[in-house]
Amino acid sequence: MQTKWWTPYLFVSLAMLGLFVFRFAPIGAALWGSLQETSLTGEVRFAGLENYTYLFSDPTFWNSIRVTLLFNLVINPLQVVCAMVLALMLVRPGPFLGVFRASFMAPMTVSIALTAVIWGILLEPTLGPVNGFLKWLGVPPQPFFRSADQAIWSIIGIATWKGAGYWMIFLLAGLIAIPRDVLEAAEIDGAGWWSRLVFIILPLMKRPLAFVLVADTAINFLMFAPPYIITQGGPAGTTHLLMFEAYQSAFTYFDHGRAMAISVIVLAMILLIVGLELRLLRPKGAH
Amino acid sequence: MHERRRRRLAGAARYAALTLIFVVLILPLYWFVMSSFRPVEDIFRYANDFGIRTLVPTRITLQNHIAVFRSEFTRALFNSLFVCTTTVALSVFVNSMAGFAFAVFEFRFKNVLFVLVLLSFMMPFESIVIPLYSISRALGLVNTYGALILPEAANGLVIFLFRQFFLAIPRDIYEAARVDGASWWQIYLRMTLPLSGPTVAAASLLIFIHQWDAFFWPLIAASSPELVVVQVAVARNMSVDQTNWGVLFSSASIAVAVALVPFLLLQRYYVRVVGLGRT
Predict the structure, then answer these.
(1) Across all residues in chain B, what is the average pLDDT?
(2) How far is the C-alpha of B273 from the C-alpha of A88, rounded, in Å?
(3) What is the pTM of this model?
(4) B231 and A111 in contact by Cβ < 8 A?
(5) pLDDT digit string (tens) for B93-133?
(6) A229 in contact with chain B, both atoms CB, cutoff 8 A
(7) Quick one: pLDDT band at residue B3, thresholds 50, 70, 90?
(8) Predicted pLDDT at B275
(9) CA distance A44 to A33
(10) Taking CB atoms and an 8 Å limit, are A112 and B213 in contact across chains?
(11) B183 and B243 both lie in a single domain
């Protein structure tokens, strides 16, 4: 029986329609919307680059860029290091490792919104048990999310609590793939644990590490729930991450053009990251 | 002799560190879920005065959980379960069809379309959430179940999973069926799909958990009280109603359990399939 030329298109049509309308059209909508201005009366006019020039002259926007960059410069390397430490601790055989591995991964099943709710309570300065525990250790109570000095670090901490076990999975797979005889040969030659790590394991883990770093950045760049649920961007704007700023522009101040301009900047950043990711995922030697 | 002692010491240090990390990662979750079984007045009673009673409940009750099932939270539970199951059904259907086409047919623009599929799942959903809101508003979807379900129906990762599975089925069986006069639709529905049970299960779990965890999109696209989903309802309990701690602890614990239990039951399998889509 002859296959009609349109049969394949019929099979992909629903999925492709969904992807175009709900994944790719929004990119166009952001670009187009960022060039328009909606007045309070609802009139739309073409505004050229006004939204961008206004944005670039706004200290609130620059603060959120600064906070987002600082956040990412700290959290991404931190999560990669934590994930690597967890993976290294689990890669050698031993008793009970299955239990440890499962428990390290359990936090990844807690959604980011619930992570924010749970840790918002745990780190509550007066009610929360963490300060109770610190008191027991003889450490004075800490303000955590309530202080401009600690809030962003607390968010970094709770996001790492959730994320480290997830990224560990990828690194553990990479470590297991390292041929055992390579490591054994080095051990026989008298290489200590540290020199094996630095001269053999890390060079062989370059690709999985780079992949995890890039993929993790794409996630953390878009972090939203903790500032929304716990800090509302405060205190004093210290947790005012870019996605929270985009949310506020759109749904607190109803500044459509500004929200779209921020979305375009976010998308440009994400496309850059995805480009890097694709390069890293390409098989070795292929060009 | 010296070497053996050194190894034993290193082993002990390793397990001490593993245990410490275990405590840091699990104790917070344990304390939270355990507290939901305490009488409301006990929840914070021992929190500030750290000791054995902080971690071991002196009184256990189901009163918080019973209260939750008598509160508005049942609406959120219904909405989440409805949205999750509908999305799973729709998504498995739509994406398996596309995966079938990418695996079986040769057609113009196939490679271009497939690159778009890959791009769509490498681009985190959150990056397009705000412009997606304008699109959904233009389509009249805002504050309907459609807003929660339709944008999640087509899923690049699920298309990819199905394509990989269908590629492994020998083409000869299709050719034989074609010679017998079967249409491609019949082949897909009667032969290929029934064979792909494990992939359907994996995709269903992946989509279900993804929808269950969704927060940012439901927050903006379906903000009316009738459409509130579990994650948003819990976050609102946190910010608005600080007096009802029992309901907050219980509702959040239920929300955690729905995502945690499949992981505990299906560990290795879970990591292989759901792990791909989780962040």
Answers:
(1) 90
(2) 23
(3) 0.91
(4) yes
(5) 999 999 999 999 999 999 999 999 998 988 889 999 999 99
(6) yes
(7) confident
(8) 63
(9) 10
(10) yes
(11) yes
CA angle, corner A108, sides to A127 and B69, nearest 5? 60
Q: What b-and-e string marks burial along B13-41, b requiring 16 or more CB atoms within 10 Å of the CB?
A: eebeebeebbeebeebbebbbbbbbbebe
Structural domain count of chain B = 2
Q: Where are the domains of chain A?
A: 52-281
ipTM of the complex: 0.91
How far apart are the C-alpha atoms of B25 and B29, rounded to whole Å?
8
In this prediction, residue B41 has a pLDDT band, given cuts at 50, 70 and 90, of confident
Please tell me the distance in Å from B259's CA to the nearest CA on chain A. 6
Report, as ranges of residue numbers, the positions in chain A whose pLDDT lies below 70: 1, 283-287
Q: B134: distance to nearest CA of chain A, Å?
A: 7
CATH number at residue B235: 1.10.3720.10
Supply the range of the domain harboring residue B23: 2-65
Nearest to B233 by CA among B100, B78, B89: B78
B264 reaches A (C-beta below 8 A): yes
* CA atoms of B248 and B259, how far apart (whole Å): 17
Q: Any CB–CB contact under 8 A between A102 and chain B? A: yes
What is the C-alpha separation between B41 and B50, in angstroms, rounded?
16
- B45 & B132 share domain: no
Contact B263 A11 (CB under 8 A): no
- In this complex, do A260 and B131 lie within 8 Å of one another by their Cβ atoms? yes
Q: Which residues contact B175 (CB under 8 A, 6 or more apart)?
A: none
Give CATH for domain A52-281. Answer: 1.10.3720.10
